[in-house]
Design a protein that fits this description.
Jelly Rolls, seven-stranded antiparallel beta sheet, Arc Repressor Mutant, subunit A, 2 domains, six-stranded mixed beta sheet
Length: about 260
């Protein structure tokens, strides 16, 4: 079965572009698993949010796994692509460049607050091609709430070197793979010393640190779907549930159970 490809033009067919008079608009589309939104950019910023489902967003030489509890801010003119990992109700918010809630061109992954989730749900009920006083008010409230959401720094940087990219792509596809760096070296045609240097030079971290980031990025949607922590730990290559929980707490400040109970 061919992978569905969604172009930028097809995706934005039901969205009015933001303007100074109407600085926030919503686009939306329900997308099947494995759909791809090809790399593109636009002069407005985009708060990429899915009411349901899980997606992977790639931009600025990095990749993020984004479950419904999170969303990602993409600054104006930043090239980005989206891969749908589960059937997704994608509801991105388009924000005029003059009203960007975050400075600079860096992507920001944030926790979607209860208030923001309800504001977006209310905005979805309005005709996206006609602006009303209530829609303007909802838009202003959303713009006020966006920068107040907690920023979650976890990200998966991506390399340019073809040998290292081959390794990284394979681990993103199968984060539980237990091959050592020496074993990966035989698969990608580079020595383990070369790969070690490439990890530090291109990604700013070791192989073990990068693999941990990939595994934690994949953990959030698995836990959100209700998968038992013991099964999550096994799928992601951890020796035990306690080992996985300890690493999760070290990164996020809470155990997996406490982290998701708060949401």
């Amino acid at each position: 079965m061919p992978i569905p490809i969604v172009t930028h033009t097809q995706f934005d067919w039901n969205c009015d572009y933001p303007t100074p008079e109407r600085p926030l608009t919503m686009s939306g589309r329900d997308l099947p698993a494995d759909a791809h939104l090809l790399p593109h950019h636009h002069p407005w910023g985009q708060f990429t949010y899915a009411m349901q489902g899980v997606m992977r967003v790639t931009a600025n030489n990095s990749s993020w796994i984004v479950p419904p509890q999170r969303a990602i801010w993409i600054a104006p003119d930043v090239v980005h692509a989206v891969t749908v990992l589960e059937p997704t109700r994608l509801r991105p918010l388009c924000v005029h460049a003059d009203r960007s809630p975050f400075p600079g061109n860096e992507c920001k992954v944030v926790e979607v607050s209860s208030l923001l989730r309800e504001l977006i749900a209310a905005l979805e009920q309005h005709d996206q091609h006609e602006q009303s006083a209530r829609e303007r008010l909802l838009g202003e409230m959303i713009l006020d709430e966006l920068p107040r959401c907690a920023v979650r720094p976890i990200r998966v940087p991506l390399p340019a070197d073809k040998r290292l990219k081959s390794l990284c792509d394979a681990l993103i596809a199968d984060p539980g793979a237990e091959l050592t760096l020496q074993q990966w070296a035989g698969h990608v045609g580079a020595s383990d010393r070369t790969l070690t240097r490439l990890f530090e030079r291109e990604l700013g971290m070791s192989f073990v640190q990068w693999r941990r980031q990939v595994r934690l990025a994949h953990a959030a949607p698995l836990i959100a779907r209700g998968m038992p922590l013991s099964q999550v730990a096994a799928e992601l290559g951890y020796a035990s549930q306690s080992a996985f929980s300890a690493m999760f707490k070290k990164t996020f400040g809470n155990s997996p159970s406490a982290f998701f109970e708060q949401r």
